[in-house]
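QA checklist item 7 of 12: single-chain prediction sanity check.
[x] sequence parsed
[x] length recorded as 126
[x] structure emitted
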Amino acid sequence: MKQNQQSMSHVEESILTVLDGYELYGLEIIDALEQGSGGKLKLGFGTLYPTLRRLERKGFVEARWGDESPEEREGARRRYYKISPQGAEVLHDLQQMRAGLVMWKSAFEQMCVGLAMWKPAYRGAS
């Protein structure tokens, strides 16, 4: 695992995931995270923007100011974010690692079942 992956939080990874293939501004990122997670991941601006700045410093995200006129944007000037080539590589590596863990778990369970020694973890009172 690369050093930059070791310090990636789940929020950073989630932001990179929604930016993969898209250029979005803050509110669009928040909406995408909430909708994509079925409402389980709700970020506020106080979490989003520091995280985006951290991702920019790591070189995983690139940002630009929007060039819409005040009439077009209906409010504050928008800053658009997209995943950088380095960020896309790190995200892809993380996704491959997670897929590998899922495959390992499935293979391990099949091996244990075949040996009649599989005892899934029980989460209840004994």
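[x] summary fact logged: The chain has a mean pLDDT of 86.
[ ] second reviewer sign-off
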